[in-house]
Amino acid sequence: MAEQIETMTPRSQRIRVWLGRVLWLLAGSLLTLLLFVLSAWLWGPSLLAHRTDWPFERQLGRTMIDRAAAQGAAQLTPPSSARPQALETGRIVYLGACSQCHGADADGKGWLGMLSYPPASALNDADTQARSDAELYWIIANGLSFTGMPGFGDRLSDEQIWAVVTYLRSLSPNTLAPVPVIPTPTTQELAGADSTQTGASRGAALYTALGCVNCHGAVGNAPGRLELRATDQRAVRAIREGTEEGMPAYSTDVLSEADLRALLQYIATFRTSRP
Ligand code: HEC
Ligand code: HEC
C-alpha cells in the first residue's frame, strides 16, 4: 500500500500541473478573442468609413496587386500578334466599360472612379506600362477584390480584353499615340439645351444630361465608330438595349418614349450641323 501511494503522488501532481497549464492557455485564448471582438466592435465602423490612407496602406495594396497579377498571369499566353483593328476595338471598349472610372484620357479622373476608395488609378502612367500584357489581362478579366475594380471576364470576350490591353499600351507616355479627343460642347451648343423646351431643344438637354455627349461628342462628332448619324430603328435598338461594345441601355425608366423621340430629333440635326 505505502509503495503504491508513493508512486501515485508525483503522477497526480504532474496531472495537476498540466491541467493548470491547459486552463491558463484556455483563459489566455478567451481573453485574446474578447479583445479582438471588442476592438472590431470599436474600430470596425471606422474601417468601413475611412477615406484617407493609413501609413503604407497604398504600398501594401500595390504589393498585393503586384503579387496577385503576377500569380494570375503565369498561366496566360498573350496572342502572338494583335489584329490591326485591335486598337480601335480596344478604344471603344475602353470608352464604354472603363472611362467612367479611369477617365476618358486614362488619367484616373473618371467621375465614378473618383468616388471609390481606393480611387481608380491612372492607366496612362509608367506603373501600368510596367505590367506585362498577361498581367493587365488578368486584372481586367478578374478584377481586384477590395477595390472598386470589377472583373470583366464574363462581359467581355477574350479578344475584347486583349484589345483593351493593346489600347492601354498605346497610352504609354513614350509612344504618345494620337488618341482622338472627344470634343467638349461649345457655349452655343449648350445654349440650345433648354430643358423647358420640346422637340430638338429638349433632345439637346437630354443628350447632355444622360451623358451621351461624353461618348459621342458634342454634335455626335466623336471619332470612329462613336460618331452618331443614325436615327432609325437601329438607333432606337442601340439606345434601348445597349450594345456589347459598351453602349449603355437606356430603359423607359430613364428615357420616356416622348424623350426618346426628342433625342432622335436632336440627333437628326447633327447631319445638317456638320459637313
Ligand atoms: C467601377 C470603377 C471601375 C471600372 C468600371 C474599371 N475600373 Fe479598373 N480599377 C478601378 C479601381 C478602384 C482600381 C484599383 C486602383 C488601385 O488601388 O490601384 C482599378 C485598377 C485597375 C488596374 C490596375 C492598375 C494598377 O496598376 O494598379 C487596371 C489595369 C485596370 N483597373 C483596368 C481597367 C480596365 C481596362 C477597365 C475597363 C475594361 C476598368 N479598369 C474598369 C476601378 C474601375
Ligand atoms: C459610355 C459611352 C456611351 C454613352 C454614355 C452613350 N453611348 Fe451610344 N454608343 C456607345 C458605343 C460604344 C456604341 C457602339 C459603337 C459601335 O458599335 O460601333 C454606341 C452606339 C450608339 C448608337 C448606334 C450607332 C449606330 O449608328 O449604330 C446610337 C444611336 C447611340 N449610341 C446613341 C446614344 C445616345 C442617344 C446616348 C445617350 C442617351 C448614348 N448613345 C450614350 C457608347 C456610349
Topology summary:
Elements: H1 2-49, H2 57-73, H3 86-102, H4 126-129, H5 133-142, H6 158-170, H7 187-191, H8 199-209, H9 212-216, H10 233-241, H11 257-273
Bound molecules: heme C (2 copies).
List keywords for this structure.
275 residues, mainly alpha, Cytochrome Bc1 Complex, Chain D, domain 2, 11 helices, 57% helix, 0% strand, elongated, binds heme C
Q: How many domain regions?
A: 2
Mean pLDDT: 81
What is the 3D shape? elongated
Order of helices and strands: HHHHHHHHHHH
Supply the CATH class of the largest domain.
Answer: Mainly Alpha
CATH superfamily of the largest domain: Cytochrome c-like domain
Structural class: mainly alpha
Low-confidence stretches: 175-180
CATH A-level architecture of the largest domain? Orthogonal Bundle
Task: Tell me the fraction of residues in β-strands, as a range.
Answer: under 5%
Number of helices: 11
CATH topology of the largest domain: Cytochrome Bc1 Complex, Chain D, domain 2
